[in-house]
Design a protein that fits this description.
- One of its GO terms (molecular function) is DNA-binding transcription factor activity, RNA polymerase II-specific.
- InterPro entries: HD, Homeobox_regulator, Homeodomain-like_sf, HTH_motif.
- The protein has 428 residues and is mainly alpha-helical.
- Helix content is 33%, strand content 1%.
- Among the domains are: 20-68, Arc Repressor Mutant, subunit A (Orthogonal Bundle); 97-142, Arc Repressor Mutant, subunit A (Orthogonal Bundle).
- The two termini are 33 Å apart.
- The protein binds a DNA duplex (19 and 19 nucleotides) through residues 1-5, 8, 13-20, 37, 40, 56, 58-60, 62-67, 69-70, 75, 79-80, 91-97, 114, 117, 133, 135-137, 139-144, 163, 165-168, 171, 176, 358, 391-396.
DNA sequence: CCACTAACCTATTCACGTC
DNA sequence: GACGTGAATAGGTTAGTGG
């Protein structure tokens, strides 16, 4: 099924691969042990603390569940049962996509059913909808609109009869990713990045300096949003209504970063449950070698070394003991000064150069807010020793970065809208 | 070269908001 | 309650990393 990515020539189509740091992996695994199906609130908190995007956390859990079910444990059971690990955590709230936003998306969809990361980000910019939501929108759209009548170049989803699961059949690579008309999102003129002709080195996307760069990817010189096209006629209601504040308080609805960040009631109760369930009193082990925590420390202003706790608590694979050092290996690894420097984004660090290296997840000065979720989870996790020791877990090590996308603020978005004279919608 | 795994995809199903 | 559609899950594939 996977669309045979027919075009190796489209370098920028995939998002840059994130390289998780060992500490981040440990944290993810620790949480995974407690709950393989974290809800939106937990994912967001974890994402914040780890300095990576929530969508990446979600993908990680997907892959992890799969990996897990593969290697051991019959996939049969863990089918997310309601009462399993506590109250089913809430899903992300529905994202309300306005008609005008839909129009933009539909337009783009007709041109390219498989937009790459650059195109998706461009759309995100144009619509104000977070990129991950756009990706989902396209997935749903493809599933529900089987590309009928070849109205455009490439189409004909040579697939089987409705439903003929390409699953087992050969995916007919041809159709996917139609050799589309220039991927231009229809509009005015999207930033070059979105056009991503086939052979262009990936843009300097959101990998490098997260908190520094406001508009990642598509950072085209010049105004990014330029292309925000809006169907002539309704510039006003474009601002998506974020679930969190339906009342529309324009209070800076974070366009890109998850909207529902605030109020995360579930986290508390979840932890509660976790603690109760695991019966772990509270195994915080002050770790002796505090050095490690700095790897991610910045994310937790007031919190003590969460990495430390993480390591100690997780008891890495074979150490059930709460305070025992995990594999000295990783620790040592984490403690590398170079890495720390890199993580901190300090110059002189051997870190990868943001420009061309893979995205390396890293901490970032984060939001002060809520107490560390990890802290609690890790403490709770202490009891479980992971039987499935991190498979090999090579170390991705150092890196700077983190992918926090900072999209346009509502104001900026509005401003962009204003700038638009009113491009004629190609379609309608 | 190869193993590992992040990123993506399809197919399905769940669930929320509307009518 | 039906319907439309966003969100999530399982499971398969592709491709970047690093040993």
């Amino acid at each position: 099924m996977a669309r045979a990515r027919v075009s190796p020539e489209k370098p920028g189509s995939r998002r840059r691969r994130l390289v998780l740091k060992p500490s981040q992996k440990d944290a993810l695994q620790a949480l995974f042990q407690q709950n393989p199906y974290p809800g939106i609130a937990t994912r967001e908190r974890l994402a914040r603390e780890l300095g990576i995007d929530e969508s990446r956390v979600q993908v990680w859990f997907q892959n992890q569940r799969r990996r897990r079910s593969k290697q051991s444990r019959p996939p049969s059971e863990h089918v997310r049962q309601e009462g399993e690990g506590g109250p089913t955590e809430a899903r992300r709230k529905r994202t309300v996509i306005s008609p005008s936003q839909t129009r933009i998306l539909v337009q783009a969809f007709t041109r390219d059913r498989f937009p790459g990361i650059a195109a998706r980000e461009e759309l995100a910019r144009q619509t104000g909808i977070p990129e991950p939501r756009i990706q989902i929108w396209f997935q749903n759209r493809r599933a529900r609109h089987p590309q009928r009548s070849p109205s455009g170049p490439g189409n004909g989803r040579a697939q089987g009869p409705g439903g003929a699961p390409a699953t087992t059949t050969t995916p007919a690579p041809e159709d996917r990713r139609a050799p589309p008309a220039p991927l231009m999102i229809f509009v005015v003129q999207p930033s070059p990045a979105a056009l991503q002709p086939s052979g262009r080195p990936p843009p300097p996307p959101q990998g490098a300096a997260p908190w520094a760069a406001c508009s990642p990817a598509v950072t085209a010189p010049g105004l990014p949003g330029q292309g925000a096209i809006l169907p002539p006629g309704q510039p006003e209601t474009h601002i998506p209504r974020w679930p969190e504040s339906p009342s529309g308080e324009g209070t800076a609805p974070p366009l890109e970063p998850q909207p529902q960040a605030p109020s995360l009631p579930s986290s508390t109760s979840l932890l509660d449950e976790l603690l109760a369930a695991t019966g772990v009193p509270d195994t915080q082990a002050p770790s002796p070698g505090a050095a490690a925590d700095e790897g991610v420390g910045p994310a937790l202003p007031g919190a003590p070394s969460f990495l430390d706790e993480l390591l100690a608590a997780t008891g890495t694979p074979d150490t059930p003991g709460p305070s025992l050092g995990p594999s000295a290996d990783e620790r040592a690894h984490l403690a590398l000064p170079g890495e720390l420097l890199a993580a901190a984004g300090l110059p002189g660090s051997p870190g990868p150069s943001p420009g061309s290296s893979p995205v390396v997840a890293g901490p970032h000065p984060a939001l002060p807010g809520p107490p560390s979720l990890l802290e609690e989870i890790l403490a709770a996790t202490a009891i479980q020793d992971t039987p499935w020791s991190s498979p090999g877990s090579p170390a991705g090590e150092e890196g700077v970065e983190a992918t926090l996308e900072t999209p346009l603020s509502e104001d900026e978005y509005q401003a962009l809208l204003d700038m638009l004279p009113g491009s004629p919608g190609p379609g309608a």
